[in-house]
Specification:
Elements: E1 3-9, H1 15-23, E2 26-33, E3 36-44, H2 45-52, H3 55-58, E4 62-66, E5 69-80, E6 87-94, E7 101-110, H4 116-119, E8 124-127, E9 131-136, E10 145-148, E11 157-159, E12 170-171, E13 180-185, H5 193-206
Parallel strand pairs: 1-4, 2-6, 7-10
Antiparallel strand pairs: 1-3, 2-3, 4-5, 5-6, 7-9, 8-13, 9-12, 11-13
GO molecular function: 5S rRNA binding; structural constituent of ribosome
Organism: Pseudazoarcus pumilus
Keywords: Ribonucleoprotein, Ribosomal protein, RNA-binding, rRNA-binding
Length: about 210
């Protein structure tokens, strides 16, 4: 899916200038990176706020038409007003077709409702992570990564290492270990009768 929008170069900068832009329905932003100078830009607020509500906008290579010149970028940061539905500033990073980029990609879970843990064990599937850091060339960037849970068993977890990645994509997680992304757990929260008998037996033994 190609996502493209227009922007103009921004001459006036500073808090006062940005405030005036927002009052006029415009949105300040910046394009940086790829060994080029940062360029302050102005965008249409209404157009961008609708785009920001689309999941793909956050995990896709975007095209900015900057006064007739096409810039290939990814969204790096969106600053929102603390309590109003107003975007204050957007940061875009240029990408190169020959350099790997790192970006968070959404996880789409499928078949939660038909896995053995739910259908046979009556358990509930919890999604621990909803996105993951990946590294890849821009052409290989997926809009999302699908995680099929059809084989999830009772009390079983799915880890980052279990994810089937598209060609050219690798995990770029921070830290060590193999984080859990989804897990099957008992519903409710109360202990079973069997658990209670075991606990009582332990108390008697201690006494």
């Amino acid at each position: 899916m190609k996502i493209e929008f227009k922007a103009t170069k921004r001459v006036d900068q500073g808090t006062g200038a940005s405030r005036r832009l927002r009052r006029a329905g415009q949105l300040p932003g910046i394009i940086y990176g790829s060994h080029q100078d940062a360029v302050p830009i102005t965008l249409d607020h209404n157009e961008l706020i609708h785009m920001l509500k689309r999941e793909a906008f956050h995990a896709s290579v975007l095209t900015i038409d900057l006064e007739g010149k096409k810039e290939t970028v990814v969204l790096r940061d969106a600053q929102w007003h603390p309590f109003k539905q107003i975007v204050l500033h957007l940061d875009f990073q240029r990408v190169s077709a020959t350099e790997k980029l790192r970006l968070k990609v959404p996880l789409h879970f499928t078949n939660d409702d038909i896995c053995p843990a739910v259908k046979l064990g009556g358990q509930m599937v919890t999604h621990v992570l909803n996105e993951i850091d990946v590294a890849c060339l821009p052409k290989d960037l997926p809009e999302f990564i699908e995680v099929d849970l059809k084989d999830l068993q009772n009390d079983q977890s799915v880890h980052v290492s279990d994810i089937k990645l598209p060609a050219g994509v690798e995990i770029a997680q921070h830290g060590e270990g193999d984080p859990v992304i989804a897990t099957a757990l008992k519903t409710g929260g109360g202990s079973t009768a069997e658990d209670g008998d075991e606990a009582e037996g332990e108390d008697e033994g201690e006494a």
